Amino acid sequence: MGNPTLDVTWAVEWLRKSAAVVAENRMALIELDRVIGDGDHGENLDRGFTAILEKLDAEPPTTPGAAFKLAAMALMSKVGGAAGPLYGTAFLRAATTLGDASELDAPALAAALGAARDGVVARGKAEVGEKTMIDAWTPAVDAAAAAAASGMGPAELLDAAATAAEAGAVSTDPLIARKGRASYLGERAIGHRDPGAASSALILRAAAQAAGVNA
Ligand code: ADP
Ligand code: MG
Fold it and tell me: What is the reported pTM?
């Protein structure tokens, strides 16, 4: 399935596809956050990814790491609330892990996704099962590590990670939230999907699509 490595073209395409899918799902994410939060998640992310698009046009990055650093800076400066700094940290940690590498093989991708997740945990202190974006990220990282260990290529790895993130987002439905605004709701959060887990699944699916996966 496709190339053994991904480069800056993939990284930029991932960010562009993420911006598109966030814009498309802006209202749906607002609606999810309206039910168990304050209703700004879709708007926050849309503003951040629009800023990323502007930066990509203004100063095109030359490595995947530079693309993710650009994304991190835009998200941290433009997105308020919990999600901006969390996503910003994720992209920044991925950028740091990749350094100035120009070609990413499956193990490098798995390491970057793992570093991104670890950044979210370092910042937000959430564990799996607390109804946050970590419930999407951690299964995605585990699937990516398993894919790399079994010799899959980058596109298959990203497909597996996105599929795991999608299942992880669905798994937040019956949970009580232990972190973030939704934690104030107690049992009233039961039956509702976590908006950050939902957006994480969309963004990780965009990564697979940028690598040529048709799903
Ligand atoms: P805010 O809650 O400040 O309005 P957003 O609505 O943009 O910010 O983002 C809410 C999402 O952030 C939640 O759905 C959840 O996935 C994520 N989140 C909140 N707190 C944490 C945390 N401590 N760790 C991980 N993710 C978190
Ligand atoms: Mg919110």
Answer: 0.97
